[in-house]
Every structure is written in C-alpha cells, then in structure tokens.
Write a structure and sequence with these properties.
- By secondary structure, this protein is mainly alpha-helical.
- The chain is about 70% helix and about 10% strand.
- It has one domain (about 1-100).
- It has helices at about 15-25, 25-65, 75-80, 90-100, and strands at about 1-5, 10.
- The radius of gyration is 20 Å and the shape is elongated.
Amino acid sequence: MKISVDGVDVLEIQDWQLTCLSYVMNIDDAKRKIVTDLSRSVLSSVAQAYDLMVINEWVPVLRDRYESLPTKDDALISLITSQPDYKDFDARQVDSETQSM
C-alpha cells in the first residue's frame, strides 16, 4: 500500500505490515484507518499553522489595515499572503540568519 502526494510516495506500508494489521482488524478497515489517521495528522498540523498565522499574527495586523476582513478561509489567506510584509517560513529563516551575522 502506497500513499502519494502530488506524485511523490510519502508512505509505503509493506505487505508484512498489512498482514500484522490483518491479525487485529479487517484489512479494509486497516487501510481506511491508515488513510484516516494520516489525514487527521495533516489536518491537525494545518489547523495549528492556521491558528498561529491567521488568528495570532495576521488578524490583528489586518484589522488595523482594513475595515472588514474576508470570512472565507481561502480569501483570508490570499489577503494575508498578498501583504507586502508577509514572509513565509523560508523567507523568515533567511532574515533570521542574515540578522545573526
């Protein structure tokens, strides 16, 4: 069983591993559980990033700049990333390294 994202294999469950799982649960249930658990983990990471990026850092800044903010998440993220002072993780890392020199 392989799980891929954008054509890149990110997880491969070997047949022997599925056999072990089939000892404790139905194999189809085991496969669904693997996908469900992986999805929950990724979505949890997204939710944490959203809380940090949007709720904690950018909403206060945007409230000072705009009279109203988008109510849809994708529009709000687009507004945030369009700000001239927005920097993603890599850009902030470069800034941090430059400042420490």
